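re: the backbone from monday

yeah here it is again, tokenized this time
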């Protein structure tokens, strides 16, 4: 039986359908479920995705209103059972606002996703970037299928994506415990010294951070937008762009897995191995 993933649809999100398609392509079943569904109807799912978009129009702060919804109480319970919960972009903001990530101190809010900084301008930024698998692959639900150091081209699109904290030493703790799962990097995997390699000024160039157990992950890049090879643009300094160029004229090749596919395939493996 294929694992069944619940894609939570908050008002204002806009990536739920493409996320569901990416999950289905990875061998998972996916259902788009509204945020106000009865709590008891959610317990049978094997995992949860909070997709990207602009829940509640990003009022107050991105993700802040959605983080106060009753469904988050259900997700806290499901996370304690070890089920994977992945927030993508706005979903990452919701997880951070709820305290599920970094998950230190019983859902206290130790982390923030602040407005982008260091770009030479303020506001929303969308582009393709490179991220590196920064922790041991089996450390998190989204990296089971990768090797440490693997570099992925992947798109971002956000205005508040800078992982930061007012708590001194928090990022030392996160790195030491392996909770910084993905880091922005150069095309060859080198350290992102600033914009555009680090597109938002995140501390430690963090692109994805997990809870201590690794089953809850907040990631700002959009893997659903790089699930198929056809989505990868020409011209990136990446084996993926070269592979896409070589696949011109072959629809079957263009429909093969892109760099983001491994994220969803990793969720599937994580679920299957914990059952």
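seq for it, each position gets an aa:
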């Amino acid at each position: 039986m294929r694992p069944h993933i619940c894609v939570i649809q908050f008002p204002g999100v806009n990536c739920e359908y493409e996320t569901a398609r990416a999950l289905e392509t990875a061998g998972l079943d996916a259902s788009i479920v509204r945020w106000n569904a009865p709590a008891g109807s959610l317990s049978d799912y094997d995992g949860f995705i909070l997709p990207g978009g602009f829940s509640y129009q990003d009022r107050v702060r991105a993700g802040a209103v959605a983080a106060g919804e009753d469904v988050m109480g259900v997700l806290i319970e499901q996370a304690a059972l070890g089920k994977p919960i992945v927030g993508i972009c706005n979903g990452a903001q919701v997880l951070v606002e709820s305290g599920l990530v970094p998950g230190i101190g019983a859902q206290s809010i130790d982390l923030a996703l602040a407005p982008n900084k260091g770009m030479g301008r303020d506001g929303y930024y969308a582009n393709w970037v490179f991220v590196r698998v920064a922790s041991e692959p089996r450390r998190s639900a989204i990296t089971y299928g990768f090797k440490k150091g693997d570099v992925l081209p992947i798109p971002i699109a956000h205005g508040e994506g800078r992982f930061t904290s007012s708590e001194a030493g928090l990022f030392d703790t996160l790195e030491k415990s392996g909770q910084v799962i993905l880091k922005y990097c150069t095309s060859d995997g080198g350290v992102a010294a600033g914009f555009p390699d680090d597109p938002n000024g995140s501390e430690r160039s963090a692109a994805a951070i997990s809870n201590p157990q690794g089953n809850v992950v907040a990631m700002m890049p959009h893997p659903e937008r790089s699930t198929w090879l056809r989505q990868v643009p020409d011209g990136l300094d990446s084996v993926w762009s070269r592979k896409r160029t070589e696949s011109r004229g072959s629809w079957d090749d263009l429909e093969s897995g892109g760099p983001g596919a491994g994220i969803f395939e990793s969720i599937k493996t994580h679920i299957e191995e914990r059952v």
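The first helix runs from residue 16 to 25. The longest strand covers residues 125-133.
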